[in-house]
Design a protein that fits this description.
- Chain B: Belongs to the MnmG family.
- Chain B: NAD-binding protein involved in the addition of a carboxymethylaminomethyl (cmnm) group at the wobble position (U34) of certain tRNAs, forming tRNA-cmnm(5)s(2)U34.
- Chain B: InterPro entries: FAD/NAD-bd_sf, GIDA_C_N, MnmG, MnmG-rel, MnmG-rel_CS, MnmG_C, MnmG_C_subdom, MnmG_C_subdom_sf.
- The complex is a heterodimer of chains A (about 475) and B (about 625).
- Chain A is of the alpha/beta class and about 475 residues long.
- Chain A has two domains: about 10-130, Probable tRNA modification gtpase trme, domain 1 (Gyrase A, domain 2); about 160-465, Rossmann fold, CATH 3.40.50.
- Chain A has helices at about 30-40, 100-110, 120-130, 135-160, 160-185, 195-215, 220-225, 240-250, 290-305, 320-330, 350-355, 375-385, 395-420, 425-445, 450-460, and strands at about 10-15, 20-30, 40, 55-60, 70-80, 90-95, 115, 230-235, 265-270, 275-280, 310-315, 335-340, 360-365.
- Chain A is globular.
- With about 625 residues, chain B is α+β, with helices and mostly antiparallel strands.
- Chain B folds into four domains: about 5-200 and about 345-455, FAD/NAD(P)-binding domain; about 205-340, Elongation Factor Tu (Ef-tu), domain 3; about 470-555, Orthogonal Bundle (Arc Repressor Mutant, subunit A); about 565-624, GidA associated domain, C-terminal subdomain (DNA polymerase, domain 1).
- Helices cover about 35% and strands about 20% of the residues of chain B.
- In chain B, the strands form six sheets. Chain B has a six-stranded antiparallel beta sheet with strand order 16-17-18-19-15-20, with no helix packed on it. A five-stranded parallel beta sheet of chain B has the order 7-3-2-11-22, covered by helices on one side. In chain B, strands 1-10-9-8 form a four-stranded mixed beta sheet.
- In chain B, strand 12 and strand 13 form a beta hairpin.
- In chain B, helix 1 runs parallel beside helix 10 (about 375-395), helix 2 packs parallel to helix 10 (about 375-395) and helix 13 (about 460-480) packs across helix 17.
- Chain B starts with a strand and ends with a helix.
- The chains are: A alpha/beta (about 475), B alpha+beta (about 625).
- At the A-B interface, helix 3, helix 4, helix 5, helix 14 and helix 15 of A face helix 18, helix 20 and helix 21 of B.
Amino acid sequence: MIAKDINDTIAAIATPLGEGGIGIIRVSGINSIETVDRIFAAINKRALADRHSHRAVYGKIIDPKTKDIIDEAICIIMRGPHSYTKEDIVEIQCHGGMLPLRRILSLLIEIGEIRLAAPGEFTKRAFLNGRIDLAQAQAVMDIIKAKTDASLKVASGHLSGCFSSHIRQIRDPLLEMIAHYEATIDFPEEEVDEIDNIQVMEKIGELKDKINVMLASANTGRILSEGLVTAIVGKPNVGKSSLLNRLLHSERAIVTDVPGTTRDSIEEYADMEGIPLKIIDTAGIRHTEDKVEKIGVDRARSYIEKADLILALFDGTRPIEDDDRKIIKLIEEKNVVIVINKNDLEQSLDERWIRKQCSGSEIAHISAVSDNGIKELTEVIKKKVYAGNVVYNEGELVNNVRQSEALKKAERHLSDAIKSLDNDIPEDLVVIDLRSAWERLGDIIGDTASEDIIDEIFSRFCIGK
Amino acid sequence: MFIAGDYDVIVVGAGHAGVEAGLAAARIGCRTLLTTLNMDNIAMMPCNPSVGGPAKGHLVRELDALGGEMGVNADKTCIQFRMLNTSKGPAVQALRAQADKKTYQFSMKETCENQDNLDIKQLLVEKILVENEKIAGVQIETGEIYTCQCIVLASGTYLRGRVIIGEKTYEGGPIGQRAAVALSQSLQKIGVKLMRFKTGTPARVDKRTLDFSKMQIQPGDSEVHNFSFLSNEHTREQVPCWLTYTNEKTHKILRDNIDRAPMANGIIEGVGPRYCPSIETKIIRFPDKDKHQLFIEPEGLHTNEMYVQGMSTSMPVDIQFEFLKTIPGMENVKIMRPGYAIEYDCLDPLQLKPSLEHKYIEGFFSAGQANGTSGYEEAAAQGLIAGINAAMKIRGRESLILKRSEAYIGVLIDDLVTKGTQEPYRMMTSRAEYRLLLRQDNADMRLTEKGRQVGLVNDERYSRYLAKKDKINEIKILMQGKKINPSREINDLLRKNDMEEIRASINLYDMLKRKNIGYKELEEVFNLPHINDEVIKQIETDAVYEGYISKQEEQVSRMEKLENKKIPPDIDYMKIANLREEAVEKLNKIKPLSLGQAGRISGVSPADISILLIYLEQYSRRND
């Protein structure tokens, strides 16, 4: 792997992550002004490119594809060499929540010739362009090392996980394909099986679909644009909606005593001391004859599948019931916090049994109607998030934007490969795209050695004079 | 001590690497001595009688463009030519030729003998003489000394060579030659690190004992191609090869006797190439294959020896005889020379700079199989570069180092000196990341100018190159300037000539991008000038693959910036506090010349490169 070019345009969130009044995204490099212009509509309709340096311009950030307004923002243009990096810089100041910051950042990367900045890269450029002096250079190297070590830790945590195994499931068949094509190219007089391009196209299509599924549903893209998906599950009337309201400090869900009141699932965003949560209050899980309610129950099950974190709610005042057992079964092997509600009333729940069933899950006691235990629950969730069960810290965010960036590129290369095959472009050219896709996927898991291709050729094909 | 002579450059060995090194150094004007163990074996082909193929043919074309000899010699002496991969893209099409081995050798010998500034001597070099870490000369087994400033070691498989046939082994070079045993020790003494590799070759059989009616004929192409940009020949008499297959009977004999295979009984210690496995290895590694193809290739026009390609073996002779007889058409086979394996010492190429000079022994260059590669073409390419760079050193000029984006030769040498090799290294197109730019048809466009600069490209080659280049530009501009509009006349004209109608105006150059339209079709319809096929090929390829080519050019220009960041030779990696230990160790060992090269070292991460980049900037500001 080669270090990135020092002359392209980079972007990153410049303010600390978490809650804050405003957040800043910094973009530096030759394409910075032009790219920001594509997502920024100034209130006076003038392009940033036409403005003088060091002006602040008020306007809106708009997704050019959907025309959605993402946030209000102030853009500050600083033309090189009168900027921190001595390059053209645009700083986008918007509302400080994680959500708009991350959406704007991914938008920039998606539409422009821009990539995510590496750790310490703005400062590195400032140094390389002569903006800061030698003494500071040492600090830059320290930053690069420290941040790299940290993100390596995160990445290696990821490596053992299913994410990288998903990547391998795309990469391995791709490697086989590449090796097969390369074998026919480098050894045309040897007995290498003919390749059926139609089959290859189907196969590439399948791999592309896998990438798209990952892009759509994998933690990466979703946490980025939507926050940590947290599902609240529990049998009817256990207090799910009350917990949601408690977390949201509002009356979004209807709270009643009638079991099955919440028929549909409710989605809300909450900012839990800097952690963005997307909370889904699911309909109570139980058998039901009511058709509308049934849809809600099915949806709840599917949310359990998709959630990054599950808050499983049990009623401390009632003994274990069949519905509870069903829930325990549903959340098996998931990332769960057991929440026992109504701790202000007399308890008759067999907590030991739950503990046995869900060994490894944290347990929190709360009263959703009062504030009792909510702080403790917050601590448990935070601990979980930061302890790496649901890894989500600065390093992880970097990783995630990187991952989705790489996945998108890989997907594009695979589309190009299919297009080329469809147009009867010779195989050696198709391989250019297949190799690029394979390399981009390798970037994600930190593994791109072209020797692999050669090893694969020799292990699969009997070649030799 | 008797000083028998003094030279600028002494080349040790006159195989494919040695002759190129000797010719190059002499042609540039250095007083050069080419030494060989046997005057009759200059440019000998001890293995297959062929030159070229994918990536290897590319190497020959590149070497030719730079002013090397292999292409010219192959064109003069080969007896069959085939263009391979014609159904694939232009980047991987490659010429492969069958050589008349003896004619090839004698023709090359003649060229060397008549080269000004070049002496050829039959002698066995026993010692490399070094003074103050600088090459001083060589000592011959008979005691005399030749002094020199530079040596090119091109010792092939002769260094401590050991031949293995079944249970029998003996010291020796290929095909009954002597081995260079003392030289190996001398190299170690002066601090050269050696590895041990192995390779092998199949039996040669008597043509009169083969039944070709049971084999498929493999004729050459009717259309004649040349390796050299200087060759003009368009007709050649060609000799066919023959195709046959092994079968279950062959495999059973091999399996039943596998305990007698030297690779199984532990006689062979060296590492063999994966792409050139012996037949016994193939049968063990791919037990599901019920047959393996064999090409029966003539060794020349004036011999009955036939080469059994695909059947490399070091099994005992009785087994070789037994399994060869099971092959259709070979029932009555007589073996003229048995197959054998050979083990030999070679240098770990990580000790070399990209100029192919040793990092710590000044004036010591090395090329070919001595650097752990395999193949005549790989050897010749390195020989040429080593010869050029020895001459550049003597002239006090900058080394010729080709980039990965410029030539397969650049990929080959960069791989060797940056990554090293664990097995005899063979060039493959899949090793080149900018394959589409490194086509065999544009080797002259890529490299002739560089060959001219070092003084190897003569006036004839240079003026041919300039003429072709000018023609390509002239025709491109002409075609780009000629716009046609979707008028009724034009569309009638197109339809009449089986071309699709146009809907918008388009220039003739862009017309080439359309399916089934080539220059020749347009030439007729639109009255374009008549030009030769080579020029047409360049123009068509550039037009049709424009998109892909510019994709690759972008990749190159991105890489280039790091390639151009040079690392000073006196850098002390231990002093860079933030580099990881593994990176420091690797960088110290390999001593890359540029950040680009540093990035290709396994174990050096992008973060290490960032740190290096900043350190280098600090370094240069301090030294300003």
